[in-house]
């Protein structure tokens, strides 16, 4: 009898486990189907009023792959340190790793309430640099107070190496920028009121008390000496200044006119560097508010300007990037807008091409390829899409 009772008990337990598994499976399938319905409705709402997607017969970019994500909340992407062709994508609480074919290689937890992600593609700074914050509810309706800001250095599997805490009263719009200052790989941190420099162990090396516009800290080897030069758009003055490897402001570099974003990039394998800025222009002649791009050479001479359409809304964090769109090895500037359009400009500001994706963009990333054209990855309310440029449909640069 005891043996029979034990057998029946085990049978009952197995049956219960099977029933619970079936219920869980049905619930998961039902939740997924409900989410697909909600997602499709949300996408219909979000794409209302956007320009239609370009026809493949004349599109400057063609879709190479697409991957749905759940939940689709990617607002920042960055290249994998020292791993060409791979990249990371960040939502609020997770980090995903992908290759150039769109295949997911890894996924792990990110610090809670993460918002920014930066990396050094060369691998000299081997970390994922993540900005996050800690908040508390004040008791007021929908009012949340930020109590702490953090910069995390994670390894490429998401394990924490070190973390720095900052008081929200002292910083704004934190942004990490890896740099190579001679023999030393460092991490620069833009805080709005100051620029901080850390070594790879998180030790503070210097502080520059420069009040600068958020999003305008950029680095590149401007003079070809193998050391990155540091640029920042000084506030409230309308100029871009240069900072040396010891953190000293050495003087004005170019007229900045109050840019909201500043990017510097090597656009030629020989070492040629270009700089581009994005700023808002106000006035009757522009019909209210207009965004304008300015293009510079490595010496700070302005090469040209281009105005975006009235009402155009550049992406919040990283609207500008350099990309090889024709396989020549010389990069052009690419800017993505919230209406789902992507525009290509030569280093001197000539408009070369545009693409209408038909979907509202959250962020984008250029993934360099070892041969041929680079890959463009966009994030939308559905997931990620990889795009390949069509060189024959690009206007030849000046």
Characterise the protein shown here:
The structure is a single chain. The chain is mainly beta and 398 residues long. Among the domains are: 46 residues; 155 residues, Beta Barrel (Lipocalin). It is built from one helix and 28 strands. Strands 1-28-27-26 form a four-stranded antiparallel sheet, with no helix packed on it. A four-stranded antiparallel sheet has the order 2-3-4-5, with no helix packed on it. Strands 6-7-8-9 form a four-stranded antiparallel sheet, with no helix packed on it. The longest helix is centred in the first third of the chain and has 45 residues. The mean pLDDT is 89.
What's the short story on this structure?
Among the domains are: 1-46; 53-75 and 267-398, Lipocalin (Beta Barrel). It has 398 residues and is mainly beta. Helices cover 11% and strands 45% of the residues.
CATH first level of the domain at 53-75 and 267-398: which class? Mainly Beta
Determine the strand fraction and express it as a percent band. over 45%
Q: Number of DSSP helices?
A: 1
Shape, per Cα inertia axes: globular
First-to-last CA distance: 92 Å
The second-level CATH architecture of the domain at 53-75 and 267-398 is Beta Barrel
Main sheet: strands, sense, barrel:
4 strands, antiparallel
Structural class call reads mainly beta
Low-pLDDT ranges? none
Query: What is the helical fraction, as a range of percent?
Result: 10-25%
Roughly what is the average pLDDT, rounded to an integer? Answer: 89
Radius of gyration: 24 Å
Could you name the CATH topology of the domain at 53-75 and 267-398?
A: Lipocalin
According to DSSP, the number of beta strands is 28
SSE pattern, N- to C-terminal? HEEEEEEEEEEEEEEEEEEEEEEEEEEEE
How are the strands ordered across the major sheet? 1-28-27-26
């Amino acid at each position: 009898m005891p043996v029979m009772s034990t057998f029946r008990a085990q049978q009952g337990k197995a049956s219960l486990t099977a029933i619970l598994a079936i219920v869980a499976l049905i619930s998961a399938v039902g939740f997924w189907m409900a989410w697909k319905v909600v997602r499709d409705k949300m996408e219909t709402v979000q794409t209302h009023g956007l320009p239609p997607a370009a026809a493949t017969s004349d599109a400057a970019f063609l879709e190479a792959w697409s991957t749905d994500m759940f939940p689709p909340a990617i607002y920042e992407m960055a290249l994998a340190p020292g791993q060409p062709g791979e990249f990371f994508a960040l939502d609020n609480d997770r980090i995903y790793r992908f290759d150039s074919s769109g295949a997911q290689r890894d996924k792990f937890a990110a610090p809670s309430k993460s918002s920014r992600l930066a990396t050094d593609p060369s691998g000299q700074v081997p970390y994922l640099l993540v900005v996050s914050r800690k908040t508390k509810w004040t008791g007021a309706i929908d009012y949340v107070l930020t109590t702490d800001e953090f910069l995390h250095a994670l390894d490429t599997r998401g394990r924490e190496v070190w973390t720095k805490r900052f008081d929200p009263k002292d910083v704004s719009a934190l942004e990490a920028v890896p740099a190579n200052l001679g023999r030393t790989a460092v991490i620069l941190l833009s805080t709005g009121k100051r620029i901080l420099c850390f070594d790879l162990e998180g030790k503070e090396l210097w502080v520059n008390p420069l009040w600068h516009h958020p999003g305008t800290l950029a680095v590149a080897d401007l003079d070809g000496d193998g050391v990155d030069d540091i640029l920042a758009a000084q506030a409230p003055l309308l100029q871009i200044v240069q900072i040396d490897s010891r953190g000293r402001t050495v003087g004005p570099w170019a007229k900045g006119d109050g840019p909201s974003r500043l990017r510097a990039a090597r656009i030629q394998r020989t070492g040629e560097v270009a700089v581009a800025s994005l700023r808002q222009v106000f006035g009757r002649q522009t019909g209210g508010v207009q965004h304008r791009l300015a293009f510079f050479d490595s010496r700070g001479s302005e090469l040209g300007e281009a105005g975006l359409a009235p009402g155009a809304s550049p992406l919040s964090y990283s609207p500008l990037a350099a990309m090889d769109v024709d396989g020549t090895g010389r990069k052009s500037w690419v800017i993505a807008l919230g209406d789902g359009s992507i525009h290509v400009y030569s280093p001197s500001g000539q408009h070369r091409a545009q693409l209408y994706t038909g979907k509202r963009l959250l962020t984008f990333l250029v993934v360099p390829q070892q041969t041929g054209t680079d890959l463009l990855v966009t994030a939308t309310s559905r997931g990620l899409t990889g795009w390949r440029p069509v060189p024959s449909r690009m206007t030849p640069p000046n």
